[in-house]
Amino acid sequence: MVERRTPISVSDAVIKVMSKKQAGEAEWVPIDQCDRRFLAKDIVATHDVPHFNRSPYDGFALRSIDTAGASRENPLEFEVIEELGAGMVPTRPVNPFQAVRIMTGTQMPVECDAVIMLELTQDIEKDGRKYIRFKRSLKKGENVSFQGEDASEGEVLVKKGTAINPGIKAVLATFGYDKVPVAKKPIIGLFATGSELLDVSDPIEPGKIRNSNSYMISSQINRAGAEVVYFGKLVDELEVSYEAIENALKKVDILITTGGVSVGDFDLLPDIYQRLGAEVFFNKVGMRPGSVTTIAALQNKLLFGLSGNPSACYVGFELFVRPIIRTMLFSEKPHLQKVQAALGADFKKPNPFTRFVRTKLSFEDGQLVVVPSGMDKSNITTSLAGSDSLTILPGGTRGFEEGDTVDALLLDDQEGSSWPW
Ligand SMILES: Nc1nc2c(c(=O)[nH]1)N[C@H]1C(S)=C(S)[C@@H](COP(=O)(O)OP(=O)(O)OC[C@H]3O[C@@H](n4cnc5c(N)ncnc54)[C@H](O)[C@@H]3O)O[C@H]1N2
Ligand code: MOO
Ligand SMILES: [Mg+2]
């Protein structure tokens, strides 16, 4: 008699997996190596930015009070007492009706509270001295970038758990973070199981297929922010597979296998979990693809038995492994971000299980639209290539029609969600 499995809901399955979530650890890396890493601490402004009042224009710094009454009919003349480029500091006090020629980014003389742009002035020379003439008055603070206008000391600028992007890197550099506190990358072990698997460089042969899952999952591990240790392919033999998995477990934080979790004669993972003494949380989830996803824990280590079918494998990773990784990377929103979209094509096939349809997002007249990115079967690989989202079609008897409002999970987004279920 073939074992009958009882499916649990996707949300219950995610809750079970997340009951084993662990916090991550921090490490410091040089700023040049922090792209796409995740912050292990809040980034706080270590000083005001700018830390001095400065000119946002090339022009002349002066005292606004001296410009009162200036007009087309009543132009004013100011003596230019020095010239300052960015990086220089004023050396002379600025007295009434004096000005300093100042370049963009230069520290303002303390006596000055306004800048007139170069284009609005006319140079003149009298008795060997330089003057400017202009025809308008300036308000106090006009054309000045004030100390702290960008950030003030002590302000939290970027939260722990955020993925470092080019803008965050600029902030890190601004505040002198030559070393950046980032989450250590969790180490994820990976096996692809199946006696039918060929290497990517092998020619195809009867009955055999190239292993694509380990490449796909490695890529998903990297996208999620963790590091992969690929242990290779396993043929469907119990002893060999058991030993390899038992050994690998000692070297990693989390172990993923692909294939061998269903009820076939060569689906060995259920036996292996039993021999390891691992606690199996579930071996059937009310979802398609990925219904056979099996997740177990041995002490504190999670074992993810993802399906061998490529689309099922892909979806299983995104729903169950990603939030565990992102939690270890200090994210408070470890799950895929959920958005609402209009379905761009009929999807009539009814199913008792929740479907995660590989879809492509686009905007049509400002409305987010999702259309399937290929054939919707769990053994299909090509629909993954064009997919940037998983559209959730809840289980039930009715199919879905073009124009229906649906939820979609974003695959390439860094923001995430705290709980999309
Ligand atoms: N009698 C039943 N049969 C099946 C059931 C079931 O409930 N009762 N479930 C089906 C579902 S749903 C799925 S999904 C698959 C899951 O199979 P496994 O996870 O056990 O995976 P395998 O049997 O090892 O392989 C399935 C399929 O995927 C191909 N594969 C495996 N590894 C790779 C790889 N690394 N790269 C590319 N493709 C891979 C493999 O050749 C098979 O075609 O079971 C159904 N059967
Ligand atoms: O596990 Mo299967 O992917 O539901 O088709
Ligand atoms: Mg199988």
UniProtKB/TrEMBL annotation:
GO terms for molecular function: metal ion binding; molybdopterin molybdotransferase activity. Its cofactor is Mg(2+). It catalyses: adenylyl-molybdopterin + molybdate = Mo-molybdopterin + AMP + H(+). Transmembrane segments: none annotated. Residues 189-327 form the MoaB/Mog domain. One of its GO terms (cellular component) is cytosol. It is an enzyme of class 2 (transferase). Pathway: Cofactor biosynthesis; molybdopterin biosynthesis. Its EC number is 2.10.1.1. Keywords: Magnesium, Metal-binding, Molybdenum, Molybdenum cofactor biosynthesis, Transferase. PANTHER family: GEPHYRIN, MOLYBDOPTERIN BIOSYNTHESIS PROTEIN. Catalyzes the insertion of molybdate into adenylated molybdopterin with the concomitant release of AMP. Belongs to the MoeA family. This is Molybdopterin molybdenumtransferase. It comes from Peribacillus cavernae.
